Amino acid sequence: MRVEGDPEVQQAVRFGLFHVLQAGARAERRPISAKGLTGPGYDGHAFWDTEMFVLPVLTYTQPSAVRDALQWRYDTMAQAQERARTLNLEGAAFPWRTIEGPESSAYWPAGTAAFHIAADVADALRRYVLVTGDEALERDIGLELLVETARLWRSLGHHDRAGRFHIDGVTGPDEYTAVKNDNVYTNLMAQRNLLTAADCAMRYRDQALDLGVTEEEAAAWRDAANDMHIPYDSDIDVHEQVEGFTRLQEWDFEHTPAEKYPLLLHYPYFDLYRKQVVKQADLVLAMHWRGDAFSAAEKLRNFTYYERRTVRDSSLSACTQAVLAAEVGFPELAHRYLREAALMDLHDLNENTRDGVHMASLAGAWIALVAGFGGLRDHDGKLSFTPRLSSRLSRLEFSLQWRSMRLRVDVRPHQTTYSLRNGGPDTVLDLLHHGEPLRVTCARPVTVPVPPAHPAGPQPEQPAGRAPLMHLPEQAG
Amino acid sequence: MRVEGDPEVQQAVRFGLFHVLQAGARAERRPISAKGLTGPGYDGHAFWDTEMFVLPVLTYTQPSAVRDALQWRYDTMAQAQERARTLNLEGAAFPWRTIEGPESSAYWPAGTAAFHIAADVADALRRYVLVTGDEALERDIGLELLVETARLWRSLGHHDRAGRFHIDGVTGPDEYTAVKNDNVYTNLMAQRNLLTAADCAMRYRDQALDLGVTEEEAAAWRDAANDMHIPYDSDIDVHEQVEGFTRLQEWDFEHTPAEKYPLLLHYPYFDLYRKQVVKQADLVLAMHWRGDAFSAAEKLRNFTYYERRTVRDSSLSACTQAVLAAEVGFPELAHRYLREAALMDLHDLNENTRDGVHMASLAGAWIALVAGFGGLRDHDGKLSFTPRLSSRLSRLEFSLQWRSMRLRVDVRPHQTTYSLRNGGPDTVLDLLHHGEPLRVTCARPVTVPVPPAHPAGPQPEQPAGRAPLMHLPEQAG
């Protein structure tokens, strides 16, 4: 990976990839924990960070590590099923925090209620199969992972009188907003989980029958997905992170001094939970991984709204804010968030690197570059890119695994070059470049212009004192 | 107190009054605990039961005990203020569970979030002053209790964009529905708390100034009260116990066998909290103590709706269901609930009388009789009655303290006699009898007819297997 115009990030992203590859490639069917093997933080436990931050990077760089990680999740299936039974639910409830499979988090409310881990596992599986084409794994363990997580969602949610499907009493990624109804991230990820399971069951009918999946059950998954309620405040035209979020009391950021952060150490959760204060990207995270569910105008409005209320008391936030800042038209802000994610440990920004590196934040630096400035998305089984650099970057170059091929993307300020390797003479890769279809072959690289950016409107503001921790790099001489 | 037509209840209500008087009259500025002094249950702790079940009975029968109980609460003020500061709030946050004043309940979510205790204390004070006319207590400790609880509500709640006042993230009386927005009981009791405080501060201006109450602060209390949001589902025309309650998933009562009750011992709270299952009267309790905030038609619809979803896994429910069943026109159902409340310990209905008697349920027998079949209410500083007996009762006679006087109410199937004692020749008591003004003097009793009942509509149903534990008494020979 090449980053020109920010030598610190260039160094940091290599440092990060080294640790992500070390932790991931050598996990060998053991969990990839939050600190990898670099320190005692989180007591060696693995969380949803693995599936939503580390595995997306490994999927495009070292997919065999993802295969092992998915196999590990699959190997804990019996415990996840037992956990679901304990909770009066169907399917499999994967643990929010674990080493060997059992739920190791305190019961309430952040741990168990964070059911989105099930959809995160399903999405990691979906992405791995999409990128690798590994149908053997899809059939042998993927189908069951999808079926059991779809069953969880179907039993956890319910239809209301008007036929809308709700998932109530859950906690999304934002740990300052817990046990609420209709978390947008959870609902959108569950929606994709349900549809992916139904499609997979159709493709592997015999294996699905062995798992007891009837046509009626698959239809019920599709119905729930299609009826999924996504709360939206039409009064101010933004999505509600959870039902009713945008009418909760505002947090008094003006009177929250710097030494009171992280808030969780200074204010009771009771107070955090009932106000508009966001620990980490949640609705914004939904706009990354389920960006297909939002219009461009919605993304801009939502990003600006949640930016004002997000304090980043979690290291699982800056990289996602970078991705969306880049998408909605604030490349300099994206660059600052990229630097925060990438330099988290090298600059010891959270003053806890002694406990081990932040594996997800390091992976997040790759995500901020590739999904942020490269604009990589893989919705609906299709690769798409919207490359556009910040003013300080003169070049970003990265490689992605795609089936047996290797796609190299070389982003310059005004053009992008796509080249494909390791394929035969007839191999083609159809992708989208800034929304336009583009066919790439192994014959020769394709260079296309980067369209000029639209003006995005007023710069988003963060809560007082909560701007990105890093400034832009020194301008090259 | 005389109850003719149900000798068991006659005995039980005397048994209950004995224990309530013993626990209350001899508390002498110590808390009146949930079990009185009769057993080790709840480790001797006092709860909101004291203010909302025990004190209403003592206010009308032994008000000096109420004075002591209020003095005890007042003596814990410093701890309640400190608790509020800990929670980032103003005023006083009285403990949900305590012996000596500090909050002794687990932090989350049933204990601390059950802020309604503040309004319960304020209402007990309001009732005591109303019934006794004890202005010295009102001035010396009552004002400060009202001011500090009003300050709690003003800081706990907030206005939304449209100017509605919300109290978010709290737990009402129903312990199967926790940490929700806009609990109707809490909001209505807080509303009365705020208005009572503003009125009291106006009447004791100098003392209020000493407490720092400005005209602006009192105005802010009135505004919050007037803007209080009361969630209502206009789709099905019932009040929502908490915001969004009526669109939550229904509990599967059909497949909940008898041995799975009480539910809290067999299902995770996670599951109870997010479904339409009610442990104890909550919206129905609001319709008792804030009955002035509901129309008769609303009460009937609400009672029927919540009756289907209330499992009474708490002993703090049957008496309230009796009161509302009587009010909305189901006197036989009210009688069965009265019997459940009254005989809770004598029949050991919950199989735990060995831990001590249920003080609130015993007090509840008196409440079920006097507020249920007698129809006593004291909204807006006025006594009102809607006496109407169940078919099995031939007579209900009870006495109430009112200032220095003693009001005796003798309810028969078709008439009620009110007589006043201990007053001078000019003493009058203006009350309402079935909505009509009635003046009672010490000169002679007044006998007025009981108007015939309107047909109430279909009999309300309880969840499968959760009908009142007691049947109607044997028909007198």
Sheet with the most strands: spatial strand order of chain A: 1-9-10-11-14
Secondary-structure arrangement, i.e. CATH architecture of one domain in chain A:
Alpha/alpha barrel
What is the multimeric organization of the chains shown?
Answer: homodimer
Radius of gyration of chain A: 21 Å
- The assigned structural class of chain A equals alpha+beta
Overall geometric form of chain A = globular
* Greatest interface: A-B, 31 and 31 residues
**Main sheet attributes: strand count, strand direction, barrel closure of chain A:** 5 strands, antiparallel
- What is the CATH topology assignment of one domain in chain A? Glycosyltransferase
Number of helices of chain A: 15
CATH class designation of one domain in chain A:
Mainly Alpha
| Weakly predicted, low-confidence segments of chain A | none
What is the number of beta strands of chain A? 14
Instruction: Report the order of strands and helices of chain A.
Output: EHHHHHHEEHHHEEEHEHHHHHEEEEEEE
Question: N- to C-terminal separation of chain A?
Answer: 23 Å
**Percentage of β-strand residues of chain A:** 5-15%
Helix content of chain A: 40-55%
How confident overall, as mean pLDDT of chain A? Answer: 96
